[in-house]
Amino acid sequence: AQSVTQPDIHITVSEGASLELRCNYSYGATPYLFWYVQSPGQGLQLLLKYFSGDTLVQGIKGFEAEFKRSQSSFNLRKPSVHWSDAAEYFCAVGAPFSGGYNKLIFGAGTRLAVHP
Amino acid sequence: NAGVTQTPKFQVLKTGQSMTLQCAQDMNHNSMYWYRQDPGMGLRLIYYSASEGTTDKGEVPNGYNVSRLNKREFSLRLESAAPSQTSVYFCASSRSAGDIQYFGAGTRLSVL
Prior knowledge:
Chain A has strands at 3-5, 10-14, 19-21, 24-26, 32-38, 44-50, 56-58, 64-68, 73-78, 87-96, 102-106, 110-115. By secondary structure, chain A is mainly β. Chain B has strands at 4-7, 10-13, 19-25, 31-37, 43-49, 56-57, 65-68, 74-78, 87-94, 102-103, 107-111.
């Protein structure tokens, strides 16, 4: 069965430090991969997506992610974190469900805290 | 530029009460979804509507019903609320099934 694992429940970094959030997936074929961010009390906002092609994808707010098929990973990175990046981050994989529909399978999320 | 709008934002129910969560999108999307979010479990799909006039069960449909009222609106109904349905509910829409999903701000529901 398809699944998404985000090994880190909580991460704390200092403002200006680099960030890497890990995501591993279990899926038989080439997946559609997504990173969403959820600020407190808000819905989910798409940061970036991978469908095919270049395995390094750029997103909004200075984030990027790299798809590594050999490691079944899609880690999210940012070179310099800002205090406003404090939020919860969700990795998701798009997988066939029924009737041609691709459902999103979400990881449990990683909560990021940023120290000044 | 509203996107996906959910009402209400907060709701407290007593066990056994019923209520309907409303969702509307103004992006002319064909597909709409309802998720619930519980701590440590990410989002789980309750029901989805691939296109107007169709609805299908997701991963956790028990205790819920949905109605795709028209292309814009997709409601979620709890007929007899239970404490296990305490959660944050998100509606989402996409241009077509399998496309990028856009989320509403959520409804925080407590069942006492």
